Amino acid sequence: MPSSRAAGRVDLASEALSAVTAPTLFVVGGEDTQVLERNREALDELTCPKELTVVEDAGHLFEGPGQLEEVAELAAEWFETHLS
Asked: Does residue 48 fall inside a structural domain?
């Protein structure tokens, strides 16, 4: 299942997005407006099970108190659902 942190460049994969079949979770900081917009566009291109989750008040690296832990919890829930 695709995932990335701070290095994800969905815009560079735009030509391949329609071929993705793995369930895909995007977790983006609410303050990272450019990346959020790119991920919303990529989400529209995917035909697989998909979800975009926004961590409010987080920036690109989720460096605020508890933000990275929130990302880990969201990912764990996603994997539990899609790997079981």
From this structure: yes
